[in-house]
Design brief:
Rossmann fold; 4-stranded mixed sheet; alpha/beta; 9-stranded mixed sheet; single chain; zinc-finger; 3 domains
Length: 450
């Protein structure tokens, strides 16, 4: 039988019968590579699975086990579910391997069998890193191998409770002629690990590389196959890292875990607001406003800094860091049209301190107050936090989780809070430690803050 070949896009997995310079699926150039098409068998199995009604299926409790790291468990929804397939993505050097190596050590310390399979490092290199992290357990097995079938055999022999495969782009299946990291190789290797996890009850972590656009490398079907997708984010210029869930069949997708990179590995950050408010000026600097940002079940207080200065060119510059650029441009237009600030001849720079990334609409009011404060060169009221979404007509719209935001601000010692004119529970309104000001429009909020 003559082998059939096809062309697969390395970015999105688009399949074509002929080579194309530009992928019709994602629009990328020179990403289609030749690979052998899999031979599909059309034989019907004699022993097929029998369909059952929901009432016939015996109830099974969600027996999670802890990873030993509370921040990690928070993102996974309370722990690791047996038989789950979890994909961890992140930039090179961000700490993915270090995090999972610490997890294997913690799980092994709890008496469970763990297999750490690496296709990117030698066994001695992993041993050196484990020694630096203080990990040495007899229940933790190490395998340096790139053949997925060999890894499969070791898993079935050892029968571990947890498997870490680092990384899915480094392993290959010998039956496929394409190189490791190709669309076909990644898809088939992930499918094999998925079948093993579901049939044996072993939890499997897959480490995935990301592209320069921040997306997971390989076909999009990879994210659909797994149960949970988490991203490990951070700036190389800062010591903290954020573990963010984007898909979770067993819990919330909006949870985050925060870590700090130290010499002995990644340490949990239990009070992240203090981290983002480090060296925050005490109300005597124009252009600085603190906002409460909700990530999952956690409220983080983050400082927003703005700098507005006359432009030296014909077209003013607009730059943002950690905030949506288009959202900031919209807020500048509202400030000019509805409040009367002449910002058309001003450069505007807005930054979320500490490398935080803020995308929820509730940060709009804080950005507007910071820009107005810098433009007028007047500091905002001392001990102030602000929250609210700004509409194009200048109104301040309600935000979610208002009570949580106010309570967190009061806990950290802030005395004043500007909120939208929405219903607030009596127990929150009765707080003696913080003054709550309601504002219907952006102009009212500026009168209160400046």
């Amino acid at each position: 039988m003559v082998a059939k070949f096809r062309y697969s896009c390395q970015s999105c997995g688009y399949i074509s019968s002929r080579w194309l310079g530009r992928c019709p699926g994602c629009g990328e150039w020179n990403t289609l590579v030749e690979e052998q098409a899999a031979i599909v068998s059309h034989k019907i199995k004699k022993q097929a699975s029998r369909a059952m009604t929901l009432a016939e299926i015996p109830p099974a409790g969600e027996e999670r086990f802890s990873s030993g790291i509370a921040e990690f468990d928070r993102v996974l929804g309370g722990g690791i579910v047996p038989g789950s397939l979890i994909l961890l993505g992140g930039d090179p050097g961000i700490g993915k391997s270090t995090l999972l190596l610490q997890v294997t050590g913690k799980v092994g310390y709890a008496g469970k069998k763990v297999l750490y399979a690496t296709g990117e490092e030698s066994a001695h290199q992993v041993k050196m890193r484990a020694s630096r992290l203080g990990l040495s357990r007899e229940s933790v097995y190490l395998l340096a191998e790139t053949d997925i079938d060999v890894i499969d055999v070791n898993i079935r022999d050892i029968r571990p409770d947890l498997v870490v495969l680092d990384s899915i782009q480094a392993v290959y299946k010998a039956d496929l002629p394409s190189a490791p990291g190709g669309v076909g190789q990644v898809r088939e290797c992930a499918a094999q690990m998925m079948r093993l996890a579901k049939t044996s009850g072993t939890s499997v972590f897959l480490v995935g590389h990301v592209t320069k656009e921040g997306m997971l490398a390989g076909p999009r079907v990879l994210e659909h196959m797994v149960d949970t997708v988490v991203y490990f984010e951070g700036d190389t210029h800062y010591s903290y890292r954020i573990l963010r869930g984007v898909k979770n069949r067993f819990g919330s997708t909006s949870e985050i875990g925060i870590f700090r990179m130290e010499g002995a590995g990644l340490a949990e950050v239990h009070n992240p607001s203090q981290l983002f408010l480090m060296n925050h000026p005490d109300g005597n600097v124009a252009g600085s406003v603190v906002i409460p940002n909700v990530e999952g079940s956690r409220t983080l207080l983050v400082e927003i800094q703005a700098l507005v200065s006359p432009t030296g060119f014909g077209t003013p510059r607009r730059m943002t860091a950690g905030l949506d650029y288009n959202r900031v441009v919209l807020i500048l237009a509202v400030l000019e049209k509805r409040v009367g600030l002449n910002l058309s001849g001003q450069d505007a720079y807005v930054n979320a301190v500490g490398g935080a990334k803020l995308y929820e609409p509730a940060v709009d009011l804080g950005v507007a107050l910071a820009l107005a404060s810098s433009f007028r060169d007047i500091p905002v009221r001392e001990g102030l936090v602000a929250m609210g979404e700004i509409g194009l007509t200048g109104e301040i719209r309600p935000v979610s989780y208002l009570e949580k935001r106010i309570v967190e601000a009061a806990r950290l010692g802030f005395k004043n809070c500007i909120v939208p004119d929405q219903k607030i529970p009596e127990e929150i309104s009765a707080l003696q430690s913080i003054n709550i000001f309601k504002a219907n429009t952006l102009a009212e909020a500026l009168e209160i803050a400046l």
